[in-house]
Target: Rab5 GDP/GTP exchange factor
Amino acid sequence: MSLKSERRGIHVDQSELLCKKGCGYYGNPAWQGFCSKCWREEYHKARQKQIQEDWELAERLQREEEEAFASSQSSQGAQSLTFSKFEEKKTNEKTRKVTTVKKFFSASSRVGSKKAEIQEAKAPSPSINRQTSIETDRVSKEFIDFLKTFHKTGQEIYKQTKMFLEAMHYKRDLSIEEQSECTQDFYQNVAERMQTRGKVPPERVEKIMDQIEKYIMTRLYKYVFCPETTDDEKKDLAIQKRIRALHWVTPQMLCVPVNEEISEVSDMVVKAITDIIEMDSKRVPRDKLACITKCSKHIFNAIKITKNEPASADDFLPTLIYIVLKGNPPRLQSNIQYITRFCNPSRLMTGEDGYYFTNLCCAVAFIEKLDAQSLNLSQEDFDRYMSGQTSPRKQESENWSPDACLGVKQMYKNLDLLSQLNERQERIMSEAKKLEKDLIEWTDGIAKEGTTNFWCSILE
Model:
């Protein structure tokens, strides 16, 4: 998605938020601009193509191996004996593998693996596991009580959900993308089965899917959120460092139509920041989305109060960018990836949740690529601000209106003091390094002069 920076502010064409395939649903940068439905179609095509290519390669290698084996036969009798032993060994190996697989899927094996899983889960902090267990039990009870109202359909849904969780237990070694694909397939299959076989109305299907997502993701969260097999944590640290480096960016630079000197607007800004930070404490994708939606609604209210008119999309995006810069939410990329991978896809494709989430992805993409031109600054000023040599807030603090909020004034004064301390520290470090260099040169000069005098005295 291409973000455009103009003198009137940051602007993104609303058509660019939609799936690039033209289906009308919201797209996502994580899905290369596709919506969830189109992305899965593209993913399946690419996967089937890869499987076909791998299969053809395996067949070709097998043919070549068989031809090489056949051509290497020199002695028929010896070769026949060797081949019979090979066949016997191959048969024994195959029998052993089949037996192992049967044991693996047997009831006793599953019970043993579940016991091992429980012991493994008890290894970390007991207090954390106890808290997790309480929440899991609570969600289970709510899910069962909810399904009781659907009688036979509810029983079938519960059975399918339990089977899915058991299957996911054996798929933890798969990549996170493959686990995500399994989850998305499960969502789609359950929803389609309810609509076709159970004749459940669409609005009730949506409610059931929300409860299913809550039930399964409460259990899968600790295994699939920011897994070690991905670079999610690395991306978290990168965007966090980037936001810290951009602490000097002002609302005026982003053309944010929000006046924080108005106490009611300032409260809305604080609530928006609180909501976006709170997203990390939630375990269910839908709950994380709800935090983004609440944050966005506070932003719209802040703009509306400031302008005395409804906010537009062009007002919303720069303000969202400003809130993200000001709040620096923890594990931002991990939360975005988690929602993208495991949320009920219908929520991301349509509705206000999908719209606000897509805008958040755009805001993060803008922050990652933000440069001097994006803020209508010269490259020289941008570099000075990024290096901490100076701060744009110094000029702003001289233009306060008499009725400006005292808290906001004090905040900017404190930022100015921190900036000045940073500049002073950098000057001291620079002078200390220069002094150290001069001392080393002086010491080397003295040593060299002493050596010269010593040899001169010997020669004389």
